[in-house]
Amino acid sequence: MSIAYWCVLVAAVLPYLWAVVAKAIRPGYNNRNPRAWAAKSNDYLVQRAHAAHLNAFEAFAPFAAGVVLAQLAGVDAQTVNGLALAFVAFRVLHGLFYVADKPPLRSLAWLGGFACALALIVLAALRAG
Question: Which of 57, 69, 79, 111 has the most Cβ atoms closer than 10 angstroms to its Cβ?
Fold first, then answer.
């Protein structure tokens, strides 16, 4: 199960990776008011990296809950690890596609990650049922 737990750590760090990307893309980042800086940016790369940052936070909670619930319910560890690895891969691709402005691929990556998180929760519910 430790692979899945490492994946939770990676997923927890991903939002900050995209924030670093947003800040590094263009000069002029202002740490006095970072949210206003991103919100006022007219740079589409900054906006997309910031959106990937926010979306990564949104995706984290259901995934982390799914891993914990699946582990507590006794779902097969290989299944949990596989879904966790797939989730992380989809979420990395999601951020890359977001920054690269590839909306159809971004949406597919989002769907793949969401499906992994849902699968973890459903498997836990079925096992506990």
Answer: 69
Going by the DSSP 8-state scheme, the letter that residue 26 receives in this structure is S
Phi-psi region of 101 (alpha: psi -120 to 50; beta: other; left: phi over 0): left
Distance CA 52, CA 124 (A): 28
The gap between the terminal CA atoms of the chain, to the nearest Å, is 21
How many CB atoms neighbour CB 42 within 10 A?
A: 7
Q: What is the pLDDT of residues 89-126, one digit of tens each?
A: 999 999 999 999 999 999 999 999 999 999 999 999 99
Whole-angstrom Cα distance, residue 50 to residue 95? Answer: 10
Helix 77-99 / helix 103-128 crossing angle, nearest 10 deg = 160
